[in-house]
Amino acid sequence: MLVLLSLGVFFVDSDVAGERRDLRHERRDIHRERRELQRDRLDGVRDQRAITKARGDLRADVARLGTIEMTSAATSASKLNLIDSPPGARVGGGSATS
Question: Which of 7, 50, 71, 76 sits a CA distance of 20 to 30 A from 26?
Answer without folding.
Answer: 7
